[in-house]
Amino acid sequence: MSTGRGIAVVTGASAGVGRATAVELARAGFDVALLARGHAGLEAAAEDVRREGRRALAVPTDVAEFAEVDRAATRAEEELGPITAWVNDAMTTVFAPLEDVTPDDFARAVQVTFLGQVWGTMAALARMRPRDEGTIVNVGSALAFIGIPLQSAYCSSKFACRGFYESVRAELLHEGSHVRMAMVHLPAVNTPQFDWCKTSLPKHPQPVPPIYQPEVPARAIVEAVLTAKPSRVLGAWNKLLVAAAQVAPNLGNHYAAIGAWESQMTDEPVRPDRPVDLRTPVDDAHDHGAHGQFDARAKGVRDPSFLKSLPTAADNFVRAACRAGADSVRARREAAALRGGAALRGRALRGGAALRGAAARRRVTGGEGAIAAGGTGDGRVAGEGRAASEGAPEGLAGRPR
Question: Is-above-0.90 flag for pTM?
Answer without folding.
Answer: no
